[in-house]
């Protein structure tokens, strides 16, 4: 073998090793390829979407048991019946907006597999259009699906997790849960609400050994071709609403989200299969993070958002010590001088810390 051939072989081996090492950092204690791991029982809501399907396939391929839950208004019972032929998978339909529908899925899973270890919510719905253009029905439907759907799932499964002293939530949020996107105002609001819900719940359930991760993917491409047998919506679970005259200009900021999904259709930079692999590791790791950002777009956009917030705090921190007037006009000291914190705020200086 000549030098060039040896170099090519070494490079290929290195690339293969790099691909094989796609895993969470060691601080999470992720599962090892050659190590023993517990067989987990999953419930994947939104299991018929391109991200949900990839996650279901990843979990099944690694020996876990899965209930794949399709959405009632885009999936038929016949579509889900194919899962009934497998011992390791159960296919069900659910409308996450209805608490009873979610509860039936949980009960059927317990009847089939006797336990639930991981609940993943990949379901979601959004309308692309200016805030002014979206009507009440469209806005309420987004909140009912994205926020109330997540809350219904948690309330249906959390009692069981408390009883068994452990459980894992993998909630698919979005970069839209960390920054506002023009053309996705109400959708962003639902994701902000989901993020606040999960953070609060984690404090409440820490003593019950319940863990949760908010998965925030960037632009995710489909790794399976759309066919007549397995159709997927062109724009994912988004409805593109025609813009009104005020927002119809080609350069209108309100059309940013529409331009974004069209760009995504051409490039689709982040792999759904690789995302699913990392999310599967989240279920099996010992110390999951609160947030998992997937893709360079997610990292860069949220980093820019946090930098902007930090800079704004620095610009306005001189107003950090406002003092409310006390009853009877006693906000000033006896000698007629204003309170120290108030004078510091007016002068733009920081008040000295205690003990100096």
Automatic annotation (TrEMBL):
Report if keyword Oxidoreductase is assigned: yes
PANTHER family, from UniProt? SHORT CHAIN DEHYDROGENASE (PTHR43976), SHORT-CHAIN DEHYDROGENASE_REDUCTASE FAMILY PROTEIN (PTHR43976:SF16)
Q: What is this protein called?
A: Oxidoreductase C162.03
One Pfam family cited in the UniProt record for this chain: adh_short
Disordered: region residues = 1-33, 320-356
State the Gene Ontology terms under molecular function. Answer: oxidoreductase activity
Tagged with keyword Transmembrane: no
Name the protein family: Belongs to the short-chain dehydrogenases/reductases (SDR) family.
Give the Low complexity compositional bias ranges. 1-20
User: Its domain of life?
Assistant: Eukaryota
Entry keywords, A to Z: Oxidoreductase
Q: Which CDD domains match?
A: 17beta-HSD-like_SDR_c
What is the organism of origin for this protein? Colletotrichum liriopes
Q: Name the coiled-coil region(s).
A: none
UniProt feature, compositional bias: Basic and acidic residues: 331-340
